[in-house]
Amino acid sequence: MVTGLVHSTESFGAVDGPGIRYLIFLKGCPMRCRYCHNADTWGAGGGTRMSAAQLLDKAERYKSYWKGGGGITVSGGEALLQIDFLNELMGEAKRRGIHTALDTSGQPFTREEPFFSKFRELMEHTDLVLLDIKEIDDAAHRALTGCPNRSILDCARYLSEIGKSVWIRYVLVPGLTDASDHLRRTRAFLDTLGNVEKVEVLPYHSLGAYKWKELGLTYTLDDVPAPTEAQIAAAQEILGGQA
After folding, report:
1. d(CA 173, CA 182)
2. Using omega within 30 degrees of 0 as the cis cutoff, is the peptide bond preceding 114 cis?
3. CB 30 within 8 A of CB 82
4. Separation between Cα atoms, residue 159 and residue 142, nearest integer Å
5. Cβ of 161: how many Cβ atoms within 10 Å?
6. What number is the average pLDDT over the span 212-218?
7. Nearest CA-CA partner of 126 in 185, 166, 178
8. Does domain 3-239 bear CATH number 3.30.450.90?
9. End-to-end CA distance of the chain
């Protein structure tokens, strides 16, 4: 039986997909985003091993609250690092009639095997993808996350090719991800896709900074403020998004 390494769960997520969601956070992430508020999910250590049935039995205790299209959202860390377990979990969720959403950076995506066949199977069980686009410029993306963005953009293209419903999420960080020319390039890229249902502009916050310090990591954005309403509105106007 395939099991997943679970960091934590939340019973009443209201911003990670439609309706009320049961949120499942898996361990492990290949990126090191400077603003990450879940740095404690990066490593594969710790966490709890659980089966798909165990997780969904817990989730279904809250099914009465899933009106308006609610269900489960699987996040991380980066959930795609545990793609075998994801297929088990999402497949079982669909057999139980549960709406499924995947919150991902897309970083592990590749059209090479064996990953690609597993990802195609996963998309058969996934109703909605919440895709994080961190930065459209590759050099800026590397500086922000420690990784290139090529696989992320190709993941977005593939999801468009198969017509999978996608919500784009963009974290607005003053001085890092708010350059108007980069925002316009992001919008131009999104215009090449035919499956984007929503663009969410998410304002940066430092609420997870304490986790970095607890882990002995250096948080480099201590002096970066949250974006103002005017900055959020300007980004929304360019990206066509909503906060």
Report:
1. 13
2. yes
3. no
4. 23
5. 11
6. 93
7. 166
8. no
9. 40
pLDDT cut 70: percent of the chain above it: 99
**Closest alpha carbon to 152 in 197, 109, 201:** 109
User: Using an 8 Å Cβ cutoff, are 204 and 173 in contact?
Assistant: yes
- The answer to whether the CB of 226 falls within 8 A of the CB of 185 is no
Rounded to an integer, the average pLDDT of 202-209 is 91
Please compute, for residue 63, the number of CA atoms within 13 A of its CA located in the half-sphere on the CB side: 13
Residue 243 has pLDDT above 60, yes or no: no
Three-state DSSP at 84 gives helix
CB under 8 A, 24+ apart: contacts of 226-232: 226/174, 227/172, 227/173, 227/174, 227/178, 227/203, 231/172, 231/174, 231/178, 232/172, 232/201, 232/203
Q: Which of 38, 156, 52 is nearest to 98 (CA)?
A: 52
Integer Cα distance of 86 and 34 in angstroms: 26
- Structure-token pair, residue 49: 């091993």
Could you give the 3-state DSSP secondary structure of residue 27? Answer: coil
* Angle between helical axes of 83-95 and 115-125 (0-180°, round to 10): 20
Q: Where are the alpha helices (DSSP H) in 45-101?
A: 52-59, 83-95
Q: Is-contact 94 125, C-beta < 8 A?
A: yes
With beta carbons less than 8 A apart as the criterion, state whether 103 and 130 touch. Answer: yes
> Tokens at residue 57, please?
């039995």
Domain ranges for the chain, please list them: 3-239
